[in-house]
Amino acid sequence: MSTPRILSIQSHVVCGYVGNKSSVFPLHLHGFQVDAINSVQLSNHTGYRKGIKGQILKAQDITDLYTGLKENNLNFYDYVTTGYVGDPSFLETLARTVTDLREKNPNIKYVCDPVMGDEGHFYVPEALLSVYQKSIVPIADVLLPNQFEAEKLSGMSITCEADGWKVCDKLHSQGKAETVVITSGEIGDNPDEIVSLGSFNRGETKVKVCIPRIPSSFTGSGDVFAASFLIWSHKHPDNPVKIMTNTVNTTYAVLNRTYESFKHLDTPGSYDKELKLIQSKADLEDPPEFVQAILVKESS
After folding, report:
1. Is 223 an annotated catalytic residue?
2. Exposure of 229 by Cβ count < 10 A (0-12 exposed, 13-18 middle, 19+ buried)?
3. CB of 146 closer than 8 Å to CB of 181
4. Ranges of each domain in the chain
5. Cβ atoms 187, 164 nearer than 8 A
6. Nearest CA to 149 among 195, 125, 182?
7. What whole-number distance in Å separates Cα of residue 83 and Cα of residue 226?
8. Catalytic position from the list 61, 87, 223, 283
9. What is the pTM of this model?
10. Over the stretch 169-223, which tens digit does the pLDDT of each residue have?
11. How far is CA 86 from CA 79, 178, 186, 274, in A?
12. Whether 56 contacts 87, CB under 8 Å
């Protein structure tokens, strides 16, 4: 079997683990060849008290980088995956880039984590929302929003599991996405659990995972989730339960290891809470089973 090639367009931080720093390592461990374009280049993630320094790439930057790949006939990929983008013009150009990649390989799969915000607020310019709705959602094969992002993209609220499935159906209907996963949300009745909902085959197969809540917040967890989802969906394309089980367990293992490393501290800082990604190498390769996905609806 040939080595799958991925173009990963996400953020980069010098110190820490978000964006491409969270995604490339797990993909490499599983034998994927990853070419990375950094949508931003920052000193650290935005959770640090004294802020960030660095650059936000614009439309011309991604155009130049992709043109170089194309002119050297290096633009044949099996997957393109996108995460944090800090500029609307960059995102518009990214959409055109994906379309051009499809001309080179009509079978390319576009896995999109529409990173916009969480816990009720945006942490990117709100102008990105309309670009996602008009230019990105229609062309993505896989959408991986969290609850906040799913609500914004669909224009619907999620107060229960039934609402979550309706939002998934809405996002399917807005484009070509075969798979929509609400990666995390307060969707169930149990305050001690986070719920992940996976809608496969345009909603014909639905899978749910209930995840024990870790009493902390993390930066970069969605990027680990997206990379893990790509890995396990590539390895088990016809087994949504396996995909969701392994994806959630991989992500949970990293977060749990990170939490165990700082829970003894009275006031852990941003650096203390950086994901213990390298230390989780074995779990990334073969995740322990903390949870098991449940088949809610099976395709007919």
Report:
1. yes
2. buried
3. no
4. 5-297
5. yes
6. 182
7. 9
8. 223
9. 0.96
10. 999 999 999 999 999 999 988 889 999 999 999 999 999 999 999 999 999 999 9
11. 22, 26, 26, 21
12. yes
